[in-house]
Amino acid sequence: SKMAEVLDEIWMFTKKQCINRPSLTIFIGLTVTTVTYYLTCVVKKPLLITGSRSYADFLQRRCPVLVQQYYPTVWCFTSRVHTIVCAILSDLMTTFKKLPCYRRDVLPTPDGGEIHLDWLDHHGNGHHDNRTRPIVVILPGLSGHSGSGYVIRLAQGAHNKGYRSVVFNFRGTNGTKLKTSMFYCAADTTDTQHVVSYIRKLYPDAPLMAVGASLGGMILFNYVAKYGKDCGLVAAMVASMPWDAAKTTESLEEPVNWLLFNTSLVRGLRRDILLNREVFDKDSRVDVDHILKSSTVAEIDERMTIKLFGFKSVHHFYTAASACNKVHQVQIPLLCLNAADDVFAPFSSIPTEDIKNNPHIALVVTSHGGHIGFGHWLLPVCESFMDKLYQQYLNAVYKYGEELLGKKKK
User: Fold this and answer.
1) How many Cα atoms are found within 13 Å in the side-chain-facing hemisphere of 97?
2) CB 191 within 8 A of CB 171
3) Catalytic residue among 118, 371, 384, 387
4) Which of 45, 97, 149, 202 is a plausible cystine mate for 90, CB 3.0–4.6 Å?
């Protein structure tokens, strides 16, 4: 046939080019190998682990992304590269786009400090009025804030679905000055409890959810575990949350990870500490000069965090901060998203067996995705797997919550 003749001509031309140009042969070989590996080993359906069959059915029915194959960004799907590229491009996009029209709300704390809340209000559709419109509290990662690329996507994602969102900027972040030397850490849920109580009083008739990314996920998980059914939330979600702080530290102090990630995290913490040096200098418990010489997050924890929050040692702090020790305490629907290749949360650190024994928790694991990456197959700046799952989960809880709350334990 004519088609067969055309294909034969293409094959003969390619064969001739490969013979005349060995480099082309190598390029084609590498391309075929990479594409084959990508399609067979990288592209997979997410793994869903939960202790409740009905919870799994609910999620797969109401969150279609969970039953579809996930295609990580094809040209940067390896863990470290994917994490870095997604972070850089996400933040780069914020320099070209106008920030959401946040409404700043300064919340005083009992100890004399301040918490800055950035609301993204929604005044649109007729499904909800101002009194009953569902709310999502967003807890950023370490040194993250309402202007971080991934946080903006979470806030706008809720807004696009017709909900109100509020970013809980941790003390001393986003360029804000501390009023006291009280900072923030993964094990302390005091400010989270204060924020949730404030919002519940402000909008008593509005259902409230929360989502936390990375360190924000650790704080949220610890809060939910501590207060159980009395946490004031109808459901929660954590993304790229480190489950075991000690194992995360061990992973981040490996030479390559230290160079690529630890130094960046330390740089962000130093910036916030320097901005508030005047306050910290007045606290006899810490030596700011010594803190600023830290080269790892663990050193900052040893020289600053454990002293400000009263922990006996870094080991004591990491044990208190780790979600892996508190899975059995969760009593509300909690969706957890991790990538199996996340160096911040090694898969071996995730307590999968404990999760199988708690009907309130569901764990979603993608084969690739890095840390707060989960990039679109072609462009990381497009809507990510995390964004899609998050928005679908919001809708699932707020529109079909009776199905979820009425689920059986097994």
Assistant:
1) 16
2) yes
3) 371
4) 149
Question: pLDDT, tens digit, for every residue of 184-223?
Answer: 999 999 999 999 999 999 999 999 999 999 999 999 999 9
**194 close to 109: Cβ distance less than 8 angstroms:** yes
Q: Is 342 a catalytic residue?
A: yes
Distance (Å, rounded) from C-alpha 288 to C-alpha 308?
12
Does 118 qualify as catalytic in the annotation? no
Catalytic residue among 272, 341, 342, 387: 342
Pure H helices in 110-161: 149-160
User: Can you tell me the distance from the alpha carbon of 144 to that of 118, in angstroms, rounded to the nearest whole number?
Assistant: 13
**How many angstroms separate the CA atoms of 135 and 166, rounded?**
7
Q: At what angle do helices 385-405 and 149-160 cross, to 10 degrees?
A: 50
Place of tokens 């807004």: 159
Catalytic status, residue 145 = no
Is the pTM higher than 0.90? The answer reads yes
Note the pLDDT tens digit of each residue in 267-311.
Answer: 999 999 999 999 999 999 999 999 999 999 999 999 999 999 999
Separation of alpha carbons 358 and 301, rounded Å: 31
Core vs surface per residue 98-124: b (16+ CB within 10 A) or e:
eebebeeeebebeeebbbbbbbbebee
The answer to whether 202 and 129 have CB atoms below 8 angstroms apart is no
Q: Which amino acid is at 293?
A: K
